[in-house]
Amino acid sequence: NSWLYDEEKGGVFLSEEQLNRTRVEARMAPKFTMTVTILLLGMAVLLALSNTGLGPVGAAAAETITAEQRLVAALKDPKVSQFVLTSDVVLTASLPPSKKDFTLVGRCRDRRQRPRLCVVDGKGKFRGFRSDGFYVGMSDIHFKNMRDTRTPGSDYSDGTGAVAFAFNGKIRATRCVFESNKAFTAGALAVRDSPLLVSDCQFRNNWAVEEAGAIRVFSNGVGTVRRSVFSGNSAGQSGGAARVFEGVLNFINCTFRGNTARKGDGGALDYESGSGGVISRSEFVGNSARNGSGGAVEVEGDSAIDDINFCSCTFRCNSAKTRGSFNVDITSDTQVTFCRNKPQGLRVVEPAKAVVNCTACAKAVYWDNKNSL
Ligand SMILES: *[C@@H]1O[C@H](CO)[C@@H](O)[C@H](O)[C@H]1NC(C)=O
Ligand SMILES: *[C@@H]1O[C@H](CO)[C@@H](O)[C@H](O)[C@H]1NC(C)=O
Ligand SMILES: *[C@@H]1O[C@H](CO)[C@@H](O)[C@H](O)[C@H]1NC(C)=O
Fold it and tell me: Could you tell me if residue 203 is inside a domain?
């Protein structure tokens, strides 16, 4: 069976068909007894109602198991660590919290049998994975319209993240599209005390009411994003595409296009206190801090451990309200390193420093999290 292949090694792999079959089989036995009971009851009721004018009742409705039901069953089944999706899913509820390591693999095909991403649609109401202590993996999935409706006063302090949030867990996303997802903070993904690894993904038009339009890394989260594109994401406050607070977020070969911080700082990225990262071979185009500073990137750390390095990045057509900061804004007690050139539109507020030093760019990423995933 071509759907079953050992990507992660050591997992239990069930295709949707297989899972469907086991479920149907498991239900056969009790169903038979139930059908007989229902038939007998039905006959009794029919006899009782025979002169009331009501039609027959109790006809068994044909039961169809949706892709969503199969996915939820796999998430709940302690023995299943990987689920292969072969059709799109439209959610009618948020996914249950993870109680184990779990990987969702998309294997969808179009009408002409060409591979395509499987769509998981949150209908603007439902959120995806939530993991306290477990690994969440996803590949070849297009998550759209996922929504985390939690607001301050509920438990928003855990980071939200409409598609996935991990606390003391791990998140890995490969070849995924995150589109039009929305949360109070972190429109798509959030990690706290957890590593995050994103490769070959697209983040489009995700939205956060407050901070971090697409990705939020905080409280010892360590993230690395490779070969991914962030476009049209926005935050009500800071970090149109992503925001880091007391954590690390590296970007390698990424493109940030048209992301917006509506009221705060950092049209694309906002590095807050106690944060670090290497941003390498990445391009910032047309990002905006409409009513703040740092059209592309804001670095607002206030601690000696902050360590932000820009390696061979390019900046074009970014804008900010604060004069002279249309590309990068650096404030507070932080030093930021550029290789090879400092960009135009760089504002440095003392005692912050901006230096040119290419040594840091020799090591690929800062606090590499590859081995921990
Ligand atoms: C990044 O992109 C450059 C070209 O822009 C390419 O040479 C390099 O191999 C890429 N690196 C990775 C890690 O994808
Ligand atoms: C822009 O920011 C200033 C403070 O810097 C604030 O007074 C004003 O209300 C903001 N405008 C908008 C449209 O958010
Ligand atoms: C450049 O950065 C490295 C650390 O990455 C440091 O050891 C070195 O002293 C720096 N060079 C200069 C001239 O500041």
Answer: no
363 lines ligand 3 (CB under 6 A): no
Q: Could you tell me the distance, in angstroms and rounded to a whole number, from the CA of residue 263 to the centre of ligand 2?
A: 7
Q: What is the tally of structural domains in the chain?
A: 3
Based on the domain organization, do 238 and 340 belong to the same domain?
yes
Asked whether residue 222 is assigned to any structural domain, the reply reads: no
Find the angle CA(214)-CA(195)-CA(68) to the nearest 5 degrees: 60
Mean pLDDT of 96-121: 96
**Is 174 in the same domain as 251?**
no
Best residue among 253, 279, 311 to mutate for probing ligand 1, ranked by most atoms within 8 Å of CB: 253
Provide the whole-model pTM.
0.82
Query: Cα of 336 to ligand 3 centre, how many Å?
Result: 12
Interval 326-369: pLDDT, tens: 999 999 788 899 998 899 999 999 989 999 999 877 765 555 44
Q: Is 263 in the pocket of ligand 2 (CB under 6 A)?
A: yes
Task: Report how far ligand 1's centroid is from the alpha carbon of 370 (Å).
Answer: 18
> What was the pLDDT predicted at 210?
92
Residue range(s) defining the domain that contains residue 52: 3-59
- Whether residue 111 is found in the same domain as residue 47: no
Which has the minimum average pLDDT: 3-17, 48-62, 222-236?
3-17
Nearest CA to ligand 3 atom 7: 359
313 and 248 in a common domain: yes
Query: Are 77 and 43 members of one domain?
Result: no
270 C-alpha vs ligand 3 centroid, how far in Å? 24
242 and 101 together in one domain? no
Residues 178 and 81 in one domain: yes
Pair (318, 334) in one structural domain = yes
